[in-house]
Write a structure and sequence with these properties.
Order of helices and strands: HEHEHEHEEHEHEHHEHHHHH
Helix content: 40-55%
Shape: globular
CATH superfamily of the domain at 34-291: Spore Coat Polysaccharide Biosynthesis Protein SpsA, Chain A
Distance between the termini: 42 Å
Radius of gyration: 24 Å
Strand order of the largest sheet: 3-2-1-4-7-6-8-5
CATH topology of the domain at 34-291: Spore Coat Polysaccharide Biosynthesis Protein SpsA, Chain A
Strand content: 5-15%
CATH class of the domain at 34-291: Alpha Beta
């Protein structure tokens, strides 16, 4: 049994090293292209903003859209309120009265998810290009102008995402998410370089309206409609791209409990998407040949590692307990000096190598993205805590998410 567990552990480390090496190889081969994007021309864009109880943030979100360095007469902003219980609609109405290109639609019911109000906004949009943004997010002024070219230069590109960054981190949880968001943006750009972008996050993404209508708009049953829509686009033969030069700043959970609930939703939605497209594996180009396997490994590798850890820990704890119990009963030595060994094994070596490379990759991402809130200097503790503790919590989130998904007891 020990040999089998060693083999499983070695396989786990091998997969981790393989994926990390793949990302490093993609980066090294394309390091001069990280911030490249095709120059586009101005075309009319409808910006759809689903909203639910965002009175605190939606004003600044609308102002950020009005401040885009894009011709004002070529933008319409459509806010779709999902029957908020606060004064979100009243806040938006002030902007509607003041600006002719801001519109408000109030949904007849609270749908409980972002997909339905987003679809309502898309159907009401006048223009051929659709930007979707969250009511608590603020894109940089040049974000739209940098992203539009992707949709114009390639007929097969139907969606474009940008770098999603943490907005004004204050709490310790938010500072950890700042590191995470920066590394994710770097990873997503690397995936873009091999045509493997699998999500266009809600904070700010750009689409072709006719293609969204063709594939059936956003899935109202999925908890992460921004993942599902990309997989559906890819299954139809379209592509999604990522512009690292464009950024949007989004609110992040301030407390652990808020963060936990958000990540539960992300994991449930990701699993829903995986189950929906599981038959695509090794079919339909990059979706089946890379994205589905890669996403599966990313989603469940931590869960697999947690199982190994719990097995080894419980096994050693049981052996230690029985050894101690019988040693006391037999009045024999509990532990002998020759039983202690500090010789590094092959598994320890590869495990250490994976850990060190993981730190190096994180630092590389932080340095290259150069996110203004993710300063490396003086932030060593946060980075180490992120790698050692923060990421180690994810398998437990996955267990909780699967439990809720199977029981059907989950909500937005």
């Amino acid at each position: 049994m020990g040999t089998f567990i060693d083999f499983v552990f070695f396989f786990y480390i091998f997969i981790g090293l393989y994926m990390l090496s793949l990302f490093l190889f993609i980066y090294y081969s394309n390091r001069k292209k990280i911030y490249e994007y095709p120059k586009g021309i101005y075309e009319k864009v409808s910006i759809v903003m689903p909203c639910y109880n965002e009175a605190e943030h939606i004003g600044k979100a609308i102002e950020a859209l009005l401040s885009l360095n894009y011709p004002k007469d070529m933008i319409e902003i459509i806010v779709v309120d999902d029957k908020s219980t606060d004064n979100s609609a009243e806040v938006v109405r002030e902007y509607v009265r003041k600006y002719g290109n801001v519109k408000l639609i109030v949904n007849k019911r609270n749908s409980g998810k972002a997909a339905e109000p987003t679809n309502i906004g898309i159907k009401a949009a006048k223009y051929d290009y659709i930007a979707v943004t969250d009511a608590d997010s603020e894109p940089e002024k040049d974000a739209l102008s940098k992203m539009i070219g992707f949709l114009q230069k390639d007929k097969k590109v139907a969606a474009v995402t940008c770098g999603v960054m943490s907005k004004k981190p204050v709490t310790f949880m938010q500072r950890l998410q700042t590191i995470e968001y920066t590394v994710i943006a770097f990873n997503r750009r690397l995936l873009d370089l091999v045509d493997a972008v699998y999500v266009t996050p809600g904070p700010f993404a750009l689409y072709k309206k006719k293609v969204l209508l063709e594939v059936g708009l956003f899935d109202t049953n999925n908890m992460t409609q921004d993942i599902e829509i990309v997989w559906r686009l890819l299954s139809y033969g379209y592509k999604a791209r990522m512009c690292l030069a464009a950024r949007v700043y989004s609110e992040t959970p301030k407390k652990f409990r808020q963060w936990w609930r958000q990540r539960i939703r992300w994991n449930i939605g990701g699993t829903q998407t995986l189950m929906k497209y599981k038959n695509m594996i090794f079919r339909r180009g990059m979706l089946g040949n890379f994205i589905v396997p890669f996403f599966s490994l990313s989603l469940f590798l931590g869960l697999f590692g947690l199982g190994i850890f719990l097995y080894i820990f419980s096994r050693r704890a049981l052996i230690s307990y029985l050894s101690t119990k019988y040693s006391f009963a037999a009045s024999s030595t509990i532990i002998r000096l020759q039983d202690l060994t500090f010789a590094p094994g092959i598994l320890n070596f590869f495990g250490g190598a994976l850990f060190i490379l993981g730190i190096g990759f994180t630092l590389l991402g932080l340095w290259l993205v150069n996110e203004r809130h993710a300063k490396i200097k003086g932030n060593v503790f946060n980075i180490l805590f992120y790698i050692i503790v923060y990421l180690a919590v994810y398998p437990f989130i996955m267990v909780n998410a699967l439990t809720k998904l199977i029981s059907g007891k989950y909500s937005w």
